[in-house]
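User: quick one, sequence for these tokens?
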């Protein structure tokens, strides 16, 4: 059975501060483990600033092999990577997957993780890092998870990921650009997400905000709900919260949605929260 934990739930840039402390201010990072597979391995969806504490916690649990799947390379999805302490350990291995459009990924990361942008060259860290471009499903044998990518609409090439373990399933659709009339929900996407247990979906904007930022690459709460309905998901988790969205505002938005009869459980991603996935 898969379990997931949120380490970063914000979009665009980190937003520390007391007004954001309930949901958390770190950018995108979700850890997935499989309790019936190797406990030495874990999967990470994006490595935004939340990845720094994900690295610490997973290392303390004995994880030494990390499968990192990047939705895309915008800063809020990669900025934690250079600071992950696992990179300084010779007993750690990292397989880092990203969209094929950015190939060679190794070159991109080597450029930003070397002077003058970062003090230590990636090759001089201890861990063995392998860069892999992904366009087809990948089966992670010892973690017993199938990872199926899908191209999604965003301001730069981006991927969604569906994880299936045989008994559990999760779909991760962050930085997914919606249209004014739900026209970006393709049949292919609905079929890809069909019957998923837990859908983690971009929900950065209200309808009013979206009307001013309709080409910024993100979705409304309404769009995320529509996507969950079409996919027959059992649980929807709003994700990639706007960096200026306070706890108070987000709780009010959730309260408003709780008055509607929805055919699934609805939550907003909160840093530190863990879920068992059926
Ligand atoms: Zn983002
Ligand atoms: Zn983005």
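Assistant:
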């Amino acid at each position: 059975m898969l379990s997931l934990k949120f380490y970063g739930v914000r979009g665009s840039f980190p937003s520390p501060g007391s007004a954001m402390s309930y949901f958390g201010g770190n950018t995108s990072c979700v850890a997935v483990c499989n309790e019936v597979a190797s406990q030495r391995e874990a999967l990470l969806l994006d490595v935004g600033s939340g990845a720094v504490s994900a690295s610490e916690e997973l290392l303390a649990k004995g994880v030494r092999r990390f499968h990192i799947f990047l939705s895309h390379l915008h800063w809020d999805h990669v900025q934690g990577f250079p600071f992950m302490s696992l990179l300084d350990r010779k007993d750690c291995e990292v397989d880092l997957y990203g969209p094929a459009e950015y190939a060679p990924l190794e070159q991109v990361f080597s450029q930003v993780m070397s002077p003058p942008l970062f003090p230590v060259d990636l090759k001089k860290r201890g861990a063995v890092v392998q860069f892999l471009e992904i366009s087809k499903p990948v089966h992670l044998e010892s973690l017993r998870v199938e990872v199926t990518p899908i191209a999604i609409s965003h301001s730069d090439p981006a991927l969604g990921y569906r994880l299936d373990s045989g008994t559990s399933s999760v779909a991760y659709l962050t930085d997914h650009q919606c249209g004014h009339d739900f026209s970006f929900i393709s049949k292919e996407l609905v079929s890809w997400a069909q019957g998923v247990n837990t859908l983690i979906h971009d929900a950065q904007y209200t309808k009013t905000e979206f009307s001013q930022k309709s080409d910024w690459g993100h979705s409304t709460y309404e769009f995320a709900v529509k996507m969950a309905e079409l996919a027959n998901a059992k649980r929807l988790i709003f994700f990639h919260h706007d960096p200026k969205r306070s706890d108070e505002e987000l709780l009010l938005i959730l309260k408003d949605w709780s008055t509607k009869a929805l055919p699934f459980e609805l939550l907003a991603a909160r840093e530190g929260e863990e879920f068992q996935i059926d």
